[in-house]
Amino acid sequence: MKIALIGATGLVGSTMLRLLEERDFPLTTLLPVASERSLGKKLRFKDKEYPVVSAADAIAQKPDLALFSAGGGPSLELAPLFAATGCYVIDNSSAWRMDPSKKLVVPEVNGDALEKEDLIIANPNCSTIQMVMALKPLHDRYTIKRVVVSTYQSVTGTGQKAVDELLQQRAGTQVSNVYPYPIDCNLLPQIDVFQENGYTKEEMKMVLETCKIMGDDNIKVTATCVRVPVMGGHSESVNIEFKNDFELGEVRDILSKAPGIVLQDNPANREYPMPLYATNKDEVFVGRLRRDESQPNTLNCWIVADNLRKGAATNAIQIAEYLLQKGWIGAAVTEKTETHAV
Prior knowledge:
Low-confidence stretches: 332-342
Number of domains: 2
Shape: globular
CATH superfamily of the largest domain: Dihydrodipicolinate Reductase, domain 2
Radius of gyration: 20 Å
CATH class of the largest domain: Alpha Beta
Helix content: 25-40%
Order of helices and strands: EHEEEHEHEEHEHEHHEEHEHEEH
Strand order of the largest sheet: 2-1-5-6-8-7
Number of helices: 10
Largest sheet: 6 strands, parallel
């Protein structure tokens, strides 16, 4: 099985590469794709080196699967070209997320929505993924009416240059200017660009993507997204209003049994999720469960996950594993048409 990795040298791309090895994904040929300045550079995978190639070269080799983490522009341009060869595309950018003809997938939440003809599959926004992981099992039981979320998002969500900038500021040697203001010892209440309604694009992603993934446009979502000087993962304070009342004991039981969720909720022992301890983990951690005493049927909780892993790379690989399980890619595929409609 041939796999193309577009954006292979970036933070998410390199995390995808590491996860493919960690999860022993059964590929036989790796086609790393990156910008022109990286052509020819060697990337190591399972004790073998693979040269970075151009997108055109990768398309010509007709891979079975293409994992995209190179931004919206390249995804809009290149994903249809890969898909036209019969290649499945899992895209980590925002390019296809709200396209009504494309599925937006978190495998534990709506993986069963995928069909064999879905050649371009959108990976949701990192902060949305970890939130819906906790929301879905609770929605199934109590029916969610409204969600108020405030995020505390790691600089790793911006990329390697942002990580470098934070470390430079801490060392007093800043040379880059990724953010408009200092990020060390500071918080930036802006992630992505502002929209006409006063919300940022990141905030509106959470609003729109949540309803699409959950399959329920009746869920009302409002978000405030903040960049914090942390490198371990994203954290979220989430206030959830349900249509039906709940018991905290049952909420804990539901979350403790939900796939991909780790419940850390023991205030007496100061046990709660923290980004430092979520680093390099694939699970979503939930804690600080308590009833909102200001209005009925409302729960407060705290959700943490490694944004490079479950928030991006892990979720994409899990989608690929679902395709493998279905026999749509890999050894079970005995026939592959040369041209597919996208």
